[in-house]
Design goal:
The structure is a single chain. Helix content is about 25%, strand content about 20%. The protein is an alpha+beta fold. The protein folds into 3 domains: about 130 residues, Dipeptide-binding Protein, domain 1, CATH 3.90.76.10; about 130 residues, D-Maltodextrin-Binding Protein, domain 2; about 210 residues, Dipeptide-binding Protein, Domain 3 (Dipeptide-binding Protein, domain 3). The strands form 6 sheets. The protein has a 6-stranded mixed sheet with strand order 14-18-13-17-15-16. Strands 1-10-9-8 form a 4-stranded mixed sheet. Strand 2 and strand 3 form a beta hairpin.
Length: about 500
């Protein structure tokens, strides 16, 4: 029941978020004919120890992809990158995009048996608006008394709908939600054993009676990719995402389906712009010119990656500016000139801090260190565990450089908003007043063509600033035991187990 004046505007506002073309739609393991099979179990291999189960304070993408199965928002992405109604059935948006009125889905219950209603929405969004920067513009949430809720923003925001994927939790549960993990999703949180994994069980009262299929899903913690590969080959794991190509080819094609899809992940040598010498744009540009992205992709992903010049992946559609491609093609002479101009004609030492559980990032750091040596930069690689990386690098910003993938919702604004000077997610301490102004004005801009121009202008500033050394959007390669079917790779960091089922009753 979109407001009539908003049909065209809403379509435009979502075009960028939903621009994942048919040619790049999600890959799904083959389905079988006949009735769907219910029951059974599946084990998913993960290499990141889960840490946070509160959906409003979670930071790590590896935690988010698991609790996607437990919590739900008013809207929810599917495997094609499309934003669909979930706990809401519809939305009406005011002409100036300052009010969003949601019609709530009826007949939904939380995992503890309590009924989902407007009070839960008001409570959850009020809490989330205090914790999440993307919801900070919420001024009020009103229960209209007719199974609708109106969210009023302090400033109009045509890009806001994708933020309403934020989890709805039971009213009054803030103090316990990290332990109880009660949501409305297709799976119920059963247990967590550190170092071992997480067990989810089927939500027998899920509002969509067709889902899920499996009785039980286990996310099993593996020491690293190679350990997970051995367990996959041995039958202890059924699904293993984020494989490198050289590992995937070791698997028996008669036993495993190998799925691959481009994502909106952005892997980079992220540079702390507040720390010398990376506070000098010439140094950052020099490092960009020193890198051969194609070689790194060949070494780390066997070619299964998209080279990046700036902070956004081309899979984000028209918001990405293809004119930026190749701006930093390898040019050693230019890199040396820039270092000399910055006073580092003899090079310098640097430390790249990398989470040890992500082999592709460790391998990328090794390849980068080798390439940077050509311009006299001596890069030492420091491997740390995931918890240390989160605390020291992401939270405290106590680092010089790191290699990681940044993930986001499948929406351009979510990709770039973290680069605002005062954004809590601004990992690299990047600051440009022109970029800040564009980020501030994008949500206020209704015209789609104007927004596209603004995104491209913003990316141009970031490219000129050489905010970091952007490397690749690595393909998500996933192995699925062919005893299962229905698994779909998402164009964002998600493990959706609701559609996975046994391929045969035998």
């Amino acid at each position: 029941m979109h407001n009539g004046n908003w049909k065209k505007i809403l379509a435009g506002a979502l075009t960028l978020a939903l621009s994942f073309s048919a040619a790049a739609c999600s890959k799904e393991s083959d389905t079988t004919d006949g009735d769907a099979i219910y029951g059974g179990e599946a084990v998913v291999g993960i290499t990141q120890e889960p840490m946070v189960f509160d959906p409003h304070t979670v930071v790590a993408a590896g935690d988010r992809e698991i609790i996607f199965n437990v919590y739900e928002g008013l809207y929810k992405y599917d495997s094609t990158g499309t934003l669909n109604p979930c706990l809401a059935t519809d939305v009406a948006i005011s002409d100036d995009a300052s009010e969003y009125t949601f019609t709530l889905r009826e007949g939904v219950t939380f995992h503890d048996g309590s009924e989902f209603d407007a009070a839960d929405v008001v409570y959850s969004l009020e809490r989330a608006s205090e914790l999440l920067p993307e919801l900070a513009s919420i001024e009020s949430i009103t229960d209209n008394g007719d199974n609708t809720v109106t969210v009023t923003l302090s400033t109009p925001n045509s890009e806001m709908l994708s933020n309403f994927t934020t989890a709805i939790i039971p009213e009054g549960s803030a103090d316990t939600i990290g332990d109880t993990r009660i949501g409305t999703g297709p799976f119920v949180f059963d247990s967590y054993e550190p170092g071992i994994g997480i067990v989810l069980t089927r939500n027998e009262n899920y509002w969509n009676p067709e889902l899920p299929y499996l009785d039980k899903v286990t996310f099993k913690v593996c020491a690293d990719m190679d350990a997970g590969l051995l367990e996959l080959q041995g039958g202890a794991i059924d699904i293993f995402p984020y494989l490198t190509t050289d590992r995937a080819v070791q698997l028996d094609p008669n036993t495993f389906d190998i799925l691959s899809l481009g994502s909106n992940m952005v892997q980079a040598l992220f540079l702390n712009n507040d720390v010398a010498p990376f506070d000098d744009v010439r140094v950052r540009q020099a490092l960009n010119y020193a890198v051969d992205r194609g070689e790194i992709i060949a070494l780390t992903m066997d070619g299964a990656g998209e080279p990046l010049t700036t902070a956004m992946s081309p899979v984000m559609g028209e918001a990405y500016d293809t004119n930026l491609d190749g701006v930093y093609n390898q040019d050693i002479d230019r890199a040396l000139e820039l270092l000399a101009e910055a006073g580092y004609e003899d090079g310098f030492d640097m430390t790249i801090t990398v989470p040890s559980n992500y082999l592709v990032h460790v391998n990328t750091a090794v390849a980068l260190a080798d390439q940077l040596s050509a311009i006299g930069v001596n890069a030492t690689i420091e491997q740390v565990d995931w918890a240390t990386w989160l605390d020291r690098v992401y939270t405290d910003r106590d680092y010089e450089a790191t290699v990681i993938c940044l993930t986001s919702d499948y929406a351009p604004y979510d990709v770039i908003s973290r680069y605002a000077t005062n954004n809590d997610g601004n990992l690299i301490n990047y600051s440009n007043p022109n970029v800040d102004e564009i980020i501030e004005n994008l949500p206020l801009t209704i015209d789609e063509d104007e927004r596209i121009s603004m995104y491209r202008e913003l990316l141009g500033y970031m490219t000129e600033d050489a905010a970091s050394v952007y490397v690749q959007d690595p393909a998500n390669i996933c192995a699925v035991n062919n005893r299962l079917t229905g698994y779909a790779i998402y164009p964002m960091y998600i493990q959706d187990m609701s559609t996975v089922r046994l391929a045969s009753s035998n």
